[in-house]
């Protein structure tokens, strides 16, 4: 009897489908989560192919379809789709890759046990860019500053109340982005660097998902639903100094909303 574990072929893709792949591995029984500055912003859930032969690109090209982003000592290269913003994978200096489980089809993310890594403690420490300035802050309000990882896009949210909750939507795009949303009034937001923001929309084309063109981090979702819509969604993962573990996470079943996602 063979001691070789049985493997399963998982299918994965960026949201727009420009990059598709298969990933063969023993059944996924856990996900690896890191709290470093880039992994926490993208909500990465990692799986590690045992060999390069376990990963097969079905559509697109890893080096031309996906955009590469690296920082710090340049030891890791993060790769995302420049059209839809999906962060698909990373490669180390040794060429070994890790796959973002969020991009895989038919995987119940919420049922996977997680193994955590304290990447935030690794030197050099991440330094956030200068905060976005706001002209006036009403008494009793709290200012939340945030930015994408590379700092090209920044924002300030003037919140009338302290943020204690965030929404975790399981739809096809939010799952891939790993976003945790809060919903401020548009007038409460001040942005910097919107020329570096790419917007992606699909299906009804009433929601525009914005991500940084340089690092791929999801920043916001802008609603185009008439004058009655006065709010927007902002990804709290990008807020500097906000303790995500202290937030009450509310689940939203966007996955079941019609039309169902197909790629």
UniProtKB/TrEMBL annotation:
PROSITE patterns: CENP_V_GFA. InterPro entries: CENP-V-like, CENP-V/GFA, Mss4-like_sf. It comes from the Eukaryota. Residues 10-123, 144-253 form the CENP-V/GFA domain. GO terms for molecular function: carbon-sulfur lyase activity; metal ion binding. Keywords: Metal-binding, Zinc. Belongs to the Gfa family. This is Mss4-like protein.
